[in-house]
Amino acid sequence: MKSKITTLVENTVAQSGKKLIGEHGLSFYIETESNKILFDTGQNLAIANNAQVLGIDLSLVDTVILSHGHYDHTGGLKSLLACNRNFTLYAHPDVFGQKVKGVDDNFKYIGIPVAKNFLEEKGIEIKLDKKAVQIAPGIMTTGEIPLENDFEGLASVFYIKRENEVVADTLTDDQAVILDTDKGLTVLLGCSHRGVINTLNHVARLTGKKRIYALMGGLHLGKASDAKLSKIMDHLRGFGLEKIGVGHCTGTRAFVALSNEFPNRVFLNTVGNVVRV
Description:
alpha/beta, Metallo-beta-lactamase, Chain A, 7-stranded mixed sheet, 28% strand, 7 helices
């Protein structure tokens, strides 16, 4: 399978003169011979503008996959609904949880800004599953990612509101997309909240393939210790990665560590980047 992956939303813009907009968020537009897919939608500030500038017709999107239920990955659903109500939405069942962030009981809502029943009223077909889902030939979600290793812990600032209590959010809804392409496996990440190594090990089990050609998305390593970064680099070596495009929540120190560990294979992913696999 051949795929074209365009970064519609990212934190940064590197292309001058095109009137592209960066925002804290992420969205990939995936084109194959049979599908036009959005993996995440950004916050909602940039997606419609960037799609127009890049010549992408959002009304033709047939599939939306959500990596998890945070606003910076789901807010662009509002812009999409303004021009398209003919797509199927895939996500984990916990994606619509009342997600909040904060410390010392000072919480701010950071969840998906559109309710499930609102989407259904608009005619959107929603498919929620904890397990891996085959979207189309060569395209699948990972489903829920097991927490297995002892060095990729969850951030302590994410919570879920449930009736009269607030509990830690273990981000069970975190998932990735797997493309089985002519060049090998390409894995697209939202934020890797459950850990990039946990994610890639899960991908290897699902596909029966250890080698991964390309890895793109957010790694959520902005506050990672040197020890954690070192362990992640050690494990990444085993996947035979040839192309690594990171941004969003990856963090500068992690980007530098990756660049040093995998010279000539790492790039900063920005709005408008196109990767063909």
